[in-house]
């Protein structure tokens, strides 16, 4: 009797242990933490991309500004020549005027492009600012989740350790032959195979057992199985 009872306790402890093992792989805070890690990583990548974009925009803007300085210098030089009265040749004057006109247009065009770059930079700066804010918030949440996940994991792990010790202790107290029988039955049933009989009912399939079973269950050394679910029956004292 005592041996069968221990066997049932072992089964319950093992069931609890496998439940905890499953739980360990599916801790809500750990899953949320992993998800949050990915989210932060994604935001960091986005931020880096935006920072590269803004650097490229600023570089392009600077190059255009240098172009405008060069064009302006050239224009000043041409205008000076044009109006100092030293050029008497009409054809030369005309060609110079044309050049001044086209350089003026080129300058306007470059200046428009500079404005466009400035607008893009402004837009990117605002996006980057927003991303920084988001990241700060998400990183704070991540830190909190990390602490929570660690705590939750430790709780499940210490529970698992306790159950492992319990299973080992129970196994050590059960006869080898019975333990072997239990392993076979467990393998075959794929789940619970030791049934605690309460008030004449099988603890696993809940079927009412014939009254003759009680006497058999009280017979030392006799293994009695439920006719319905084939579980090994143990009388609950
Ligand atoms: Zn049964």
From the structure above, extract its key features.
237 residues, mainly alpha, Helix Hairpins, two-stranded parallel ribbon, 78% helix, rod-shaped, binds zinc ion
Task: Explain what the structure shows.
The protein is mainly alpha-helical and 237 residues long. It has helices at 2-25, 28-83, 90-173, 176-189, 212-218, and strands spanning 194-197, 232-235. It folds into two domains: 2-174, Orthogonal Bundle (Helix Hairpins), CATH 1.10.287; 180-235, no CATH class. A two-stranded parallel sheet has the order 1-2. Helix 5 links the parallel strand 1 (194-197) and strand 2 (232-235). The radius of gyration is 42 Å and the shape is rod-shaped. The model has no long low-confidence stretch (mean pLDDT 95). The structure holds zinc ion. Zinc ion binds at residues 195, 202, 204-205, 207, 226, 228-229, 231. Residues 195, 202, 204-205, 207, 226, 228-229, 231 line the site of zinc ion.
Write a brief caption for the model.
This protein is mainly α and 237 residues long. It has 5 helices and 2 strands; from the N terminus they run ααααβαβ.
- How much of the sequence lies in strands comes to under 5%
Question: Number of domains in the coordinates?
Answer: 2
Task: Return the CATH topology of the largest domain.
Answer: Helix Hairpins
Bound molecule types = zinc ion
In angstroms, what separates the terminal alpha carbons?
9 Å
Q: Class of the largest domain, according to the CATH hierarchy? A: Mainly Alpha
Backbone shape: rod-shaped
């Amino acid at each position: 009797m005592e041996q069968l009872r221990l066997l049932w306790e072992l089964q319950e402890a093992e069931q609890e242990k496998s439940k905890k093992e499953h739980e360990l792989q599916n801790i809500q805070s750990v899953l949320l933490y992993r998800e949050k890690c990915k989210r932060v990583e994604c935001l960091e990548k986005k931020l880096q991309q935006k920072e590269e974009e803004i650097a490229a925009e600023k570089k392009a803007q600077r190059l255009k500004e240098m172009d405008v300085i060069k064009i302006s210098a050239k224009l000043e030089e041409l205008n000076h020549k044009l109006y100092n009265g030293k050029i008497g040749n009409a054809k030369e004057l005309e060609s110079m005027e044309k050049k001044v006109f086209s350089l003026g247009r080129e300058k306007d065009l470059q200046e428009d492009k500079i404005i466009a770059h400035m607008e893009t930079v402004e837009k990117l700066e605002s996006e980057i600012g927003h991303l920084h804010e988001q990241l700060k918030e998400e990183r704070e949440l991540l830190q909190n989740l990390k602490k929570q996940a660690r705590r939750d994991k430790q709780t499940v792990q210490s529970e698992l350790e306790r159950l492992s010790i319990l299973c080992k202790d129970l196994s050590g107290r059960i006869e080898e032959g019975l333990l072997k029988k239990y392993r076979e039955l467990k393998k075959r049933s794929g789940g619970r195979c030791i049934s605690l009989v309460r008030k004449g009912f099988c603890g696993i399939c809940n079927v009412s057992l014939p009254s003759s079973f009680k006497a058999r269950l009280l017979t030392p050394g006799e293994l009695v199985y439920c006719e319905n679910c084939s579980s090994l029956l143990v009388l609950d004292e």
